[in-house]
User: Which sequence fits this backbone?
């Protein structure tokens, strides 16, 4: 009888662990997907403007944004070959070039959304869209730092871990009480 109760306890622990892992993963994915929201709208609006004859200066805000320091979205406009035509980055931003495969993918699909880690201390939520203008086409990249999203993910991880630990502790306590009451 002892073995079956312990087996049942282990099964409960596994199920509770899977439940809490699922809760964490759903929360983390919701936060990460929501991190794309302003970039999607901005990239689509800028691509639309460029496709309809607007020039770079009218579709970009004039801020000098450093994604290492700011949570504000930033924009880079590329030509069809992946060369930067215009951006609103500060000179200190110092982002590396995007892999050329991104542009090939976007040419086939129209858009790409991904997490880009250009340096050890910086992760970005990025959206790249394609535009086709009167003077040729290119790509619009809009990104922003994931710093606050990752802070929220850490908070969710702490809460879910604490709830998991309390649940396991309660399962253990109830199992122990059951064994003691049964006097096995």
Assistant:
């Amino acid at each position: 009888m002892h073995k079956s109760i312990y087996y049942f306890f282990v099964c409960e622990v596994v199920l509770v662990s899977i439940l809490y892992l699922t809760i964490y993963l759903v929360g983390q994915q919701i936060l990460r997907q929501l991190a794309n929201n302003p970039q999607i709208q901005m990239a689509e609006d800028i691509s639309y403007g460029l496709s309809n004859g607007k020039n770079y200066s009218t579709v970009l805000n004039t801020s000098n944004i450093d994604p290492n320091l700011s949570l504000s979205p930033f924009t880079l406009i590329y030509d069809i070959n992946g060369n930067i035509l215009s951006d609103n980055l500060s000179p200190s931003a110092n982002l590396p070039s995007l892999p050329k495969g991104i542009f090939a993918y976007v040419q086939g699909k129209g858009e790409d959304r991904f997490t880009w880690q250009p340096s050890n201390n910086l992760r970005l939520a990025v959206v790249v869209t394609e535009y086709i203008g009167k003077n040729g086409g290119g790509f619009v990249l809009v990104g922003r730092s994931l710093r606050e999203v990752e802070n929220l993910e850490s908070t969710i991880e702490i809460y879910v871990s604490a709830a998991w630990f309390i649940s396991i502790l309660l399962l253990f306590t109830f199992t122990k009480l059951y064994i003691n009451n049964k006097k096995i």
The longest strand covers residues 122-133.
